[in-house]
Amino acid sequence: MAGVLLVSNDLMFTSQISGAAGTRGLEFKACGVIKLAEFCEKHEPALVLLDLTARGLEIETAVAEVKRILPSAHTIGYGPHVDEQLLQAAVDAGCSQVLVRGQFVANLDQLLAATCG
Fold first, then answer.
1. pTM, two decimal places
2. CA distances (Å), 111 to each of 39, 47, 58, 86, in order?
3. Nearest CA-CA partner of 84 in 99, 106, 103, 74
4. Core-most of 7, 13, 16, 76, by most CB within 10 Å?
5. Domain spans in the chain, listed from the N-terminal domain onward
6. How far apart are the C-alpha atoms of 2 and 6, rounded to whole Å?
7. Which residues of 27-65 are buried (b: 16+ CB within 10 A; e: fewer)?
8. Is there a contact between 54 and 7 (Cβ–Cβ < 8 Å)?
9. How far apart are CA 30 and CA 35, in angstroms?
């Protein structure tokens, strides 16, 4: 079963993503920044979602860790549209996709379908 891992501190948004993953039959896990490597190794998700505003997230380090552990995993970073510097940092770090939060929410089901089958 394909899996989705979310790195976020936003519990309400976590619930929304969990529901969308569940309707597609995808295994869903959420963790904080500190547990990212552990969760990648244990659950081997096909998709890693990175909330760019997550407390303690260093996007360059996070993407490098994911790529080291799961070279074929798809990474999507999302954040506020007003923080262009944060979004650009995610692009520079090598995220597979970087979206503003509104785009991410509007296209969540299609993103899950495209990256997890």
1. 0.95
2. 21, 10, 23, 21
3. 99
4. 7
5. 3-116
6. 14
7. bbbbbebeebbebbeeeebbbbbbbbebeebebeebbeb
8. yes
9. 9
Where do the H-state alpha helices sit in 8-107? 11-23, 36-43, 59-69, 84-93, 101-106
**5, 43 contact by CB (below 8 A):** yes
Cα–Cα dist 78/46, whole Å: 17
Angle at 10 (CA atoms; ends 1, 59), nearest 5 degrees: 75
Condensed to tens digits (0 to 9), the pLDDT of residues 7-16 reads 999 988 899 9
Sign of CA dihedral 32, 70, 14, 77: positive
What is the architecture of the domain spanning 3-116? 3-Layer(aba) Sandwich (3.40)
